Amino acid sequence: MSAGMGADLLSPPAARIEARHGDDLLQRLDEVGFMTCMTVVLLGNYAQTGHFGGPLAYTPYNVCAHLAGPSLGGLSYDYRRPKHPFADKFMLAGGHNIPTGYALWMILGQALERRYRLTGDKRYYTDPAVAILPIDALGFRRGAGALKRLLHDCGLVDHPLFEQARLRGIKALAGHAESTDLTNDVNGGPSGVGIATAGGKAAFWDMIGAPQSLKIIALEGEFAMTEGHAQELKTQALALQVGKRLRILLSENNAGIDDVLLGGIIHARFSDYDLVKQWTSYGWNVLQLENGNDYAQILRVLTEMERWDPADRRPMIVIGHTTKGYWPSPIEHQLVSYQSHPYGMKMNSDYFVSLAKTFEERFGVTFEGIRDGAVADTRERLIQFMTNINVVMSVLDGNGLGDWLAERLVELGDGVKDDFAVQIDVSRDPFLDERLRVANLPTEPQTVRVVNRLSGAEKQVSIGLFRKPGEIAGTRRAISEIIKWLNYVTDNRMITLAADLSESINLEHGSLWGHYDPLINPLGTRVKAAIQEAGNVATAIGLVGQSASVDPTRFAGLWAISGTYGAFTPLMYTPSRVWSQQNQDSKFRLGVLHILAAHSGPETAADGRTHFGIFATQVWKLFPRGQTIHLNFWDYNDVAAGYFAAAEIAARDPKVGIISIEVARPDFAIADRSKFADQDLKAAAKGLYVIRDFKPGLPRQGYVLAQGSSSTVNLVKQLPRIDAAGLNVKIIAVVSEELFDRQSAEYRHSVLPPEGYCDAMVISTGTRRMWPIRNLGPQTDEYSLTSDWHDEWLTGGLEADVIAEAHLDEQSIFAGIERFARRARKADHA
């Protein structure tokens, strides 16, 4: 481990950079850092909201990461093209600390804009739509809608102070970090979700064979590291062997939101609660800083990580002691620790003025109106706000700082190249391959020849997307086959991660070349994973959330699937929800996250009641409509058709970022579709299809919607008895409402016409709390058969016992349909 070191011990590369720029690097970092801190405080003062102490504590880390330069371990990035695929990834994972990001990006943007205005040199030009500029300070914690009329409503459209708004308006700056924020690549904040994806982001570079220079720098605090998602990163990143590609800068100040960690939440007598020991015990490289707010110490530790042996595959974390409420200049009665967490001071308060005074004295400037108390009038507040933001920016005009900063950013940006060598073909998106279209799927078993493009090894692989009627195979058996087909067609771009039950849920054999290892088997697509549902899906998100294509419309990356028991998949929901937001906002095509809710339904009987996936799997419908596709399979031959229909859509519609798949454990005889109304082997691709149609010339007795394995299998077994009893019901298999929504109106109405929604019952292994399709009528609940028909948890037992208790056995299903069909109703003749 490394202790913090002073400025006199700066490494030779630092000295060379200082000589090349003619200025002392540490002085420039300190100047930019002070400007950043002052801007953070101005944001809070005039917005009267936001966070205070944390962003200030992070600022030296943030400034060094952005300005040290890659030779000293700082970021390789281009402010003018901040989302460049071959830039290092910066993660402001401690999301509430985003004011330090906004403040620094404003300063950097202003330095470039200033230099461009003075010289006309296009090297300094940044598209205003990309940059964050001083005018955007007015957008801090405001909504985009309100900002469209803010200046107009205050009569300030033509005021010279707000001239910058004419470029492209005022950007809305959210209260927590989002992946749309310039260099930031994560939606930071909730439950440690942000930092949890870092292992996957780092592993992405290894999996595509990118140069060792590419890395992830993530900023986080010790309170967030107590959260489950973040804790699981410790195991995830080490298992992935990402080494120094992953570098975390931890701000340790023992201060949260309401309390301290040691001596507060953890009693002071438990002195062995030690962050360094926690990380070293998980096998990480841990470096320490005595003062994590000291630029010389930060610069030295960044350089040390950059020089670290790349053969050491342990990830890296710097634990630096910081001050929550840090200020670059001595201040009396300094507000620190958790009490500084929110910006809780009144506008132009005495403490704010004391902070501003130190800035005035350091740079020889004067803020306007801050000593006259709070500003009540909105128009006058905006004028004072913008005036004083410009006071901070005026520091760029003195001492050559603005020129140095602009040159530094251009130099850093010019170092990011479009032609990085990687080991995948970035000229095409393999998920658009015609062989993945439903219409082109082979219906007979295939034996294909695969060649390892790295080792040259060859072998034959058998793939069976469809099987013969009567063969015994449950839906989960088809999962490995669709993944094998994907990996065969895409050259190993489908990564699998499961919670230590890859074999059980049939992900294990989807890999053509076995288990992934960055050193000895980089083409393996099966990632060995611990029982960490949240960590596994976060890693998957890190993998799919990147692309190696410079063209934002063309995807060149990975897809990934993370699976576990359906009952446990809610542990994966929060990271997936945040991912869905990032995917929606991304200007680049990204990969598709897959969730496998395996061993779902009440069929998982032998494992106990805790393992029933009845209610839990419904969380995968809690997304904006059209942004996910949920699939619930009952028959082996539905899996390939339904899945590749979803994949065909997701590969072409950037809005769809998640495909969730629900399958049960039991093996059943594969259905004989020659007895179905819709005999199409690939009928599942349409979302809903007809198993049994109405008998012509007889009164129609309603629509039966079937979903889930045991429920549909037992229903199909009762078809002869339903015929014999003269029950004229139409039976429809519900595989995916989202796929059904994408069919023609003609097809949808032929399967389930509008009047059918009010004349339907459901037979499902799921819950009556959420139907397989929306807008069903008021009588559906009364006649449906679901696992929670009695609003109780099932008691457990053998599979047959549980299915009977759920009223999904053959006799119960027939009785339920008969009751539904013979209910008092008006005859509806064909």
Structure description:
The protein has 830 residues and is α/β, with parallel strands linked by helices. Helices cover 33% and strands 11% of the residues. The chain has a six-stranded parallel β-sheet, sandwiched between helices. Strands 1-2-3-5-4 form a five-stranded parallel β-sheet. A four-stranded mixed β-sheet has the order 14-16-15-17. α2 packs antiparallel against α13 (378-393) and α8 (198-207) packs parallel to α9. The termini are far apart.
Based on CA atoms alone, the radius of gyration comes out at 30 Å
Strand portion: 5-15%
How far is the N terminus from the C terminus? 81 Å
**Helix count, DSSP H or I runs of 4 or more residues:** 25
Helical residues, percent: 25-40%
Please tally the β strands and state the result. 17
- For the residues shown, what is the average pLDDT? 94
Instruction: Name the structural class.
Output: alpha/beta
Task: List segments where confidence is low: pLDDT < 50 over at least 5 consecutive residues.
Answer: 1-23, 826-830
Spatial arrangement of strands, main beta sheet:
9-8-10-11-13-12
Main sheet summary: 6 strands, parallel
**Rough outline:** elongated
Write the layout of secondary structure elements.
Elements: H1 12-21, H2 25-47, H3 53-67, E1 89-92, H4 98-119, H5 144-153, H6 165-168, H7 193-196, H8 198-207, E2 216-221, H9 228-240, E3 246-252, H10 275-280, E4 285-289, H11 295-306, E5 316-321, H12 350-363, H13 378-393, H14 401-414, E6 446-451, E7 458-463, H15 479-490, E8 494-498, E9 526-527, H16 533-544, E10 559-565, H17 573-585, E11 593-598, E12 628-632, H18 636-650, E13 658-662, E14 688-692, E15 703-707, H19 709-717, H20 719-724, E16 730-734, H21 737-741, H22 745-751, E17 760-764, H23 780-783, H24 799-805, H25 810-821
Parallel strand pairs: 1-2, 2-3, 3-5, 4-5, 8-9, 8-10, 10-11, 11-13, 12-13, 15-16, 15-17
Antiparallel strand pairs: 6-7, 14-16
Helix pairs in contact: 2-3, 2-4, 2-12, 2-13, 3-4, 3-11, 4-14, 8-9, 8-16, 9-16, 16-17
